[in-house]
Amino acid sequence: MAPPGSLMRVAYMERGGRAREQCGRPASSENEIRGSAIMKPASKSCSESSEQDKYDLTVCEKCGHGDSEQEMLLCDGCDRGFHMFCLCPVLVTLPVGDWFCPLCSPTALVYEFPKVQKKIVDFFRILKPFHQVSPGCGEVRKRRRQSGGSLCRQKKSRRLLPYIPCSDPHRRLEQMASLATALTSVGVSFTDKLLYSFAPRMANTARLEKGGMQSMGKEDKGTLEACKAMCSRGEWPPLMVTHDSRQGFVVEADRHIKDMTIICEYTGEVDFMRHRTHDEGNSIMGLLFTEDPDEELVICPDKCGNIARFISGINNHSPEGKKKQNLRCVRYDVDGEARVLLIAIRDIPQGERLYYDYNAFQKEYPTQHFV
Ligand SMILES: C[S@@+](CC[C@H](N)C(=O)[O-])C[C@H]1O[C@@H](n2cnc3c(N)ncnc32)[C@H](O)[C@@H]1O
């Protein structure tokens, strides 16, 4: 069986390799990765000495230090230096092409989505207008189980639970507006499905997974479908997106969430990994890992996606980081199609930030600077 976790992917290693080749050269229009990878030059020639001095004096505008030059970016607008890990959010890939610092690219500001019901309904293409969610919503299956089996059997089966929306429609509107704010700010439209415009649906054949992929059972499939149906009716998962000065957009539990609850599916466009090796996205998710690398698939939420793309990663180089993990990213074979779900791995109190391990079984995503 494949390891349970899926992983967030970045083209960091390749990009980093190319970047280091550029060391010793100041920015020039001929440089393919101009600006992005302009680290301080490593060696000095006579003609380059004044440029060299300039780079030697460069310090990060955020922390004031000039160390970690391999991760120091120079802005193509103002020439100021910034550590990749001092940026908000932390930059994990070297940008391709020109890079402009936060002072030169005010477009990075958060755009607050209006809390207007009609606009929110249109943004998420909600099928039904807002209505009161009954207190038992999302608990139908739980009631059935209570009447049918012993507690002992319930614990053993470890079935997935549907999320339980907040009953207050105004609060749900706020939750949805918070996601619309985040999606709009990063230029992404909403989808709650996997989309197949780059790779065909038939390429996503779960049985091609190296070592096999766990199949989702009938009952869990029903739970997943119930979550999808709730979402399409505006019975939103109890999650709030907020903005953090170090992490960028983050997601918090907006009510108590039980262990084994489905938080969301990871959605976006499905593409072949080979098409995305030079992609700048920091939210690419592994979907299918096959014997033939050409057949490997990823989910790319850079144009369309949902709340999953905003959930934080733990720093898996530190014990404190590991303690924060409250979700697991799990890949399932659902009727032959590989899907990625984020699932609570313990009870999560209201207000707690959601975290999972971006590196569940491969160690490609650099999280050493994560907070
Ligand atoms: C999948 S995105 C998460 C959404 C992101 N926060 C945003 O605003 O778009 C992954 C990126 O979020 C940031 N991030 C996620 N978890 C973090 C953490 N624990 N500490 C610092 N930055 C984090 C990093 O910039 C990372 O590359």
TrEMBL record:
<feature type="domain" description="SET">
    <location>
        <begin position="237"/>
        <end position="359"/>
    </location>
</feature>
<dbReference type="InterPro" id="IPR013083">
    <property type="entry name" value="Znf_RING/FYVE/PHD"/>
</dbReference>
<protein>
    <recommendedName>
        <fullName>Histone-lysine N-methyltransferase</fullName>
    </recommendedName>
</protein>
<dbReference type="Pfam" id="PF00856">
    <property type="entry name" value="SET"/>
</dbReference>
<keyword id="KW-0156">Chromatin regulator</keyword>
<feature type="domain" description="PHD-type">
    <location>
        <begin position="57"/>
        <end position="107"/>
    </location>
</feature>
<dbReference type="InterPro" id="IPR019787">
    <property type="entry name" value="Znf_PHD-finger"/>
</dbReference>
<dbReference type="InterPro" id="IPR001214">
    <property type="entry name" value="SET_dom"/>
</dbReference>
<dbReference type="Pfam" id="PF00628">
    <property type="entry name" value="PHD"/>
</dbReference>
<dbReference type="InterPro" id="IPR046341">
    <property type="entry name" value="SET_dom_sf"/>
</dbReference>
<dbReference type="InterPro" id="IPR053114">
    <property type="entry name" value="ATXR5/ATXR6"/>
</dbReference>
<keyword id="KW-0479">Metal-binding</keyword>
<keyword id="KW-0862">Zinc</keyword>
<dbReference type="InterPro" id="IPR001965">
    <property type="entry name" value="Znf_PHD"/>
</dbReference>
<dbReference type="InterPro" id="IPR019786">
    <property type="entry name" value="Zinc_finger_PHD-type_CS"/>
</dbReference>
<keyword id="KW-0863">Zinc-finger</keyword>
<dbReference type="InterPro" id="IPR011011">
    <property type="entry name" value="Znf_FYVE_PHD"/>
</dbReference>
